[in-house]
Amino acid sequence: MPDAAAEPGTAAARNAAEEKSALSHPAVEPDSTAGYGDHPDQVIDFYAPRGGTGPGEAAPVVVVLHGGSWRAPYDRRHISPFAGFLAERGFAVASVEYRRGAEAPGLDGSGEPVAGRWPDTFDDVAAALDALPELVRQHLPRADARRTVLTGHSAGGHLALWAAARHLLPADAPWRTDRPAPLRGVVALAPIADFEVADKLDVCGGAARQLLGDGELFAARRPYADPALLLPTGIATTLVQGRADIDVPQAVAEAYADAAAKAGEVVGVTLLEDVGHFPLIDPAADACAVVAEEIAQLAW
Q1: Does the predicted TM-score (pTM) go above 0.85?
Q2: How does DSSP classify residue 76?
Q3: Beta strands per DSSP E along 139-249
Q4: Residue 47 forms beta bridges with which residues?
């Protein structure tokens, strides 16, 4: 396979085409939506399983956390075709919205919205996961919450890994739990999984540093936010990564897997040839079917 880094024009063109394809699908409306807080962004969309389960058989639950660099313009609507795709595969799906960065231009004057809100983004993901079992009972009666898999794409992949590691947070973290989350596993898609490596590579325009804050704040907050520092989780985890991804390069996923190995935990890494960042959530792409299979292996 040609080295994407050696052919930036080709890589950029491929990335643009893949992004256009992934975002070209019409939004898939959920069967219901419920709030887990008072803010307009504190909501979860629910998709009932549309196939793949037998009569009376309860479906596994897939919790989806969307990406978009934790920035406000990117909400759960762009990942709704992926949520609908999973529902067609027989999963009960809960797609979580959360507060993201302000609409105001970034502090660097680039005009790019700031990535994330501290601590609001983390407050919301923790609150959503805590509220989920009861909301699943209300909105997904055909679902089995005991078979829950957490997935997320890009920045959402970071949040999925983080949510599965809340029992490892520092003792003074408001989001810490006293035991591991009751999950069958995590499937993180091109996740921003290691903040040190992501920062060095300037992933998504320095999004990780914007999320935590610059200078001393970045170092001080990493133990509360960086999945690579929250290991071993004791929860089955698989990373799915396109080798041609120029948005969140393969090195970020590999750094997390290496950190897990040093902590005594084996993390699965599925590398897809000639695949970039967006096909993982594009129902029209073969990579999306691979993702669904990885989820099924943990869920069923």
Answers
A1: yes
A2: G
A3: 143-153, 185-189, 237-242
A4: 93
